[in-house]
């Protein structure tokens, strides 16, 4: 069986000087777990890797347990495969916002939210932001940027679906890295 490419998205590491994980150590960690073609992207915890066996959910549990044992704290880890990233980019409902990476974000959701959960979030979306949920992805167009978005801060609390967000530059960079994995 040939190895399959995955991306691990970590939540809550290297934010505000807390829960520090050096990317070189994270790469070694993945290699020590038996993964190959490991590469990391920026300090917020993104790792592209290839695995010979396992699906995204199984790998997320395996990596999460080993991560907590090594670093002594829990980080929610979303693992997605290359086709998920391709679909994420191809289904972007806000192509006009993609030109400015600070205005478009994608949230990897742990599961597809229910209609009721999305309706609750829709009620809170009263500012300039727009969002759309497609499966286990929430797309957020924030014309004033994520830092100034009150709505963005409400998403995890109101939606109540565990998630982690990446700006569009990171999404595109991770897709490119995943597409190249194993081709060197």
Strand content: 15-25%
Separate helix tally = 6
Oligomeric form:
single chain
Number of strands: 8
| CATH architecture heading of the largest domain | 2-Layer Sandwich
Cα-based radius of gyration, to the nearest Å: 16 Å
Physical arrangement of strands within the biggest beta sheet = 2-3-1-4
Overall spatial form: globular
Distance between the termini: 19 Å
CATH class of the largest domain: Alpha Beta
Query: What is the number of independent domains?
Result: 2
How are helices and strands ordered from N to C?
A: EHEEHEHEHEEHEH
Low-pLDDT segments: none
For the record, what is the CATH homologous superfamily label of the largest domain? SP0830-like domains
3D architecture notes:
The protein is built from six helices and eight strands, in the order βαββαβαβαββαβα. By secondary structure, it is α+β, with helices and mostly antiparallel strands. The protein folds into two domains: 4-85, SP0830-like domains (Alpha-Beta Plaits, 2-Layer Sandwich), CATH 3.30.70; 91-171, Alpha-Beta Plaits, CATH 3.30.70. The protein has a four-stranded antiparallel sheet, with helices on both faces. Helix 3 packs across helix 6. 34% of the residues are buried.
């Amino acid at each position: 069986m040939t190895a399959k490419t995955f991306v691990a998205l970590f939540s809550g590491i290297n934010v505000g000087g807390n829960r520090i994980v050096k990317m070189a150590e994270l790469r070694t960690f993945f290699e020590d777990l038996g993964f190959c073609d490991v590469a990391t992207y920026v300090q917020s915890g993104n790792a592209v890797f290839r695995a010979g066996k396992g699906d995204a959910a199984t790998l997320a549990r395996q990596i999460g347990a080993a991560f907590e044992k090594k670093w002594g704290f829990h980080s929610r880890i979303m693992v997605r495969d290359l086709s998920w990233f391709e679909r994420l980019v191809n289904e972007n409902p806000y192509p006009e916002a993609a030109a400015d990476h600070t205005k478009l974000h994608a949230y990897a959701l742990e599961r597809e939210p229910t209609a009721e959960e999305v309706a609750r979030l829709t009620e809170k979306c009263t500012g300039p932001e727009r969002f759309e949920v497609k499966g286990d992805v929430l797309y957020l167009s924030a014309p004033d940027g994520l830092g100034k978005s009150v709505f963005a801060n409400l998403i995890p609390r109101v939606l109540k679906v565990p998630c982690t967000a990446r700006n569009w530059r990171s999404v595109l960079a991770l897709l490119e890295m995943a597409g190249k994995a194993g081709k060197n």
